[in-house]
UniProtKB/TrEMBL annotation:
Coiled coil: none annotated. One of its GO terms (molecular function) is oxidoreductase activity, acting on paired donors, with incorporation or reduction of molecular oxygen. This is Cytochrome P450 monooxygenase. It comes from the Eukaryota.
């Protein structure tokens, strides 16, 4: 019989003895569950080939998996194999277990370890822990970091990144930055009111400006510092190369492939620019120049530690820019396709903020339920991060199967949140389903749409992201009616889940 490690026994006091009894009962229950479960070998999934495992599936021309279309690959796997699918034999990485079942996802999250382990990117792990080890030392941030080092860092920055009291203080600056994006749209749109094909890049600039690492970066200025575009390009290069390094044959582990070189250079660029911002933040703090403290300055003031500040900044640049900007691009696109919903949203904004120049405040945003519903509905249908995961740190029974320690559990959020089983009329854009009291709101499973993850490792930037997205939408929708007059765009992974094609939106002045 396989032993399950379910916890430590504490037998030093009477309450300790009670605890020991509970733990032993729990152990016994788990052992029984394990014995009744189906062996791991029986989990369905694509068969591996000798030597190449399943990695060949990502080889162009012969393979049937395209990185850009992992969304469609996941759907296919679900329809072919069901709610629990094993993906084994990807060279250089552990087996993955794809979960398409919110009940099972909830179970995994509820039993989460105190130090949850998200399947990390080995390539970023290499960068932080080997290639630039002297720079990062023991204080590596949170991305691709695990165990006590992760916990130590995360608990220090949680209080700045996640406290509503702190994020609230930034509404005014985020609103000012969003106003800058509105001005920029007015400048770049043509006589037909249409923005250029690379409009997403302008949203990236807005998102970068929102990071509040120093008080103002000037990213949306027409004479923005060249570092703005360098940083945006570097983050893009990083993300585009991650899946290539992780899912294709990992030649980079043996020699410096061009993809790997580009990836390392991109990370070096992000690191170099980050350090400049930390230095500026520090100088301003020293001179007591700053009125409103930037996020970096708050970390510096709290910790008096430039390492923590720079590593937080690096992680924020890595995962905070493209996620938020692609979410905004996707929501604007959906609103342009769904004019009735856009009109309802405009009505809500206009009722709560009748004066177009009135200051957006936290209290006003709180009243905008339809706004939040539009955001949630877009994230349900097109989550910018289509899946998430955890590594099992002990043997577990998942979906009725014996899953050994070390397997990477991948939560297939995109597929799940587009199944009618969990969201009736799932193919329709219906923000109403997120409003309290609506018929549709009653039936969805709380773990069927989790765009920011869940638990202790949940997105560190979610409060900022929410605030930024809400604010910029209010600013844009109260200024413009958005339309789109071209062929409907499909979505692809590039590097986030985003509309595939030029976002030539029309912004008609209100
Ligand atoms: C729409 C915008 C965003 C989305 C959809 C998003 C989504 C996610 C998801 C799914 C995770 C994994 C959570 C888990 O494992 O349970 C995550 C982690 C993370 N996110 Fe975000 N994110 C967004 C914006 C941001 C922003 C703006 C920042 C920073 C300013 C940020 C910083 C982070 C960090 C640092 C982590 C790693 C947390 C850890 O491992 O402890 N994110 N995000």
């Amino acid at each position: 019989m396989k032993l399950l490690r379910a916890g430590r026994r504490v037998i030093s006091s009477s309450s300790g003895q009670q605890q020991a009894v509970i733990t032993t009962l729990h152990d016994a229950q788990l052992s029984e569950e394990w014995e009744q479960a189906v062996p791991y070998e029986k989990v369905p999934g694509p068969k591996r080939l000798p030597f190449l495992g399943n990695t060949w599936r990502f080889i162009p021309l012969i393979g049937d998996f395209q990185i850009e279309h992992v969304d469609k690959v996941s759907k296919r796997l679900y329809h072919k194999y069901g709610k629990v699918v094993k993906m084994e034999g990807l060279l250089g990485r552990p087996d993955m277990l794809f979960l398409f079942d919110p009940d099972e996802i909830e179970k995994v999250f509820r039993q989460e370890d105190a130090l949850p382990f998200r399947p990390s990117m080995p390539s970023l792990n290499y960068y932080k822990h080997v290639y630039r080890k002297e720079f990062f030392g023991d204080n590596c941030g949170v991305i691709a970091v695990h165990g006590e080092k992760w916990q130590d860092f995360r608990s220090r920055v949680n209080q700045i990144m996640l406290q509503p009291r702190v994020t609230k203080m930034y509404v005014k600056s985020i609103a000012a930055t969003s106003q800058e994006l509105v001005d920029r749209i007015k400048t770049i749109k043509n006589r037909n009111h249409e923005v250029p094909a690379d409009f997403l890049n302008e949203i990236h600039k807005w998102s970068l400006e929102c990071e509040y690492l120093t008080n103002r970066l000037g990213c949306l200025d027409s004479d923005a510092h060249p570092d703005t575009q360098r940083l945006i390009d570097a983050v893009n290069t990083f993300f585009i190369n991650v899946p290539i390094l992780e899912l294709k044959v990992p030649f980079w582990k043996v020699w410096n492939t061009p993809t790997f070189k580009a990836y390392l250079n991109a990370l070096d660029t992000i690191r170099e620019i980050t350090m400049k911002h930390v230095t500026t933040a520090l100088q301003k703090l020293d001179k007591e120049e700053s009125g409103e403290l930037s996020v970096l300055q708050r970390v510096l003031r709290l910790e008096n530690d430039t390492k923590t500040a720079s590593n937080l900044a690096l992680d924020m640049f890595l995962v905070g820019i493209d996620t938020t900007s692609n979410a905004v691009a996707s929501i604007l696109y959906q609103l342009s396709l769904h004019q009735e919903n856009q009109a309802t949203l405009y009505e809500e904004i206009n009722t709560i903020l009748p004066d177009i120049n009135a200051q957006i405040t936290h209290e006003k945003l709180e009243q905008m339920h339809y706004l939040k519903a539009c955001i949630k509905e877009t994230m349900r249908m097109y989550p910018v991060v289509i899946g998430n995961g955890r590594c099992t740190t002990s043997d577990r029974v998942i979906g009725g199967y014996q899953i050994p320690k070390g397997v990477q559990i991948i939560f297939q959020h995109y597929v799940i949140s587009n199944l009618k089983e969990y969201f009736p009329r799932c193919d329709e854009f219906l923000p109403e389903r997120w409003l309290k009291g609506s018929e549709l709101s009653k039936c969805h499973h709380p773990f069927a749409s989790l765009p920011f993850g869940f638990g202790r490792r949940m997105c560190l930037g979610r409060r900022f992201a929410d605030l930024e997205i809400q604010t910029v939408l209010v600013e844009i929708i109260r200024n413009f009616k958005i339309e789109y007059h071209y062929e409907k765009l499909d979505y692809h992974i590039h590097p986030m889940y985003t509309p595939n094609g030029p976002l030539k939106l029309q912004f008609l002045n209100r």
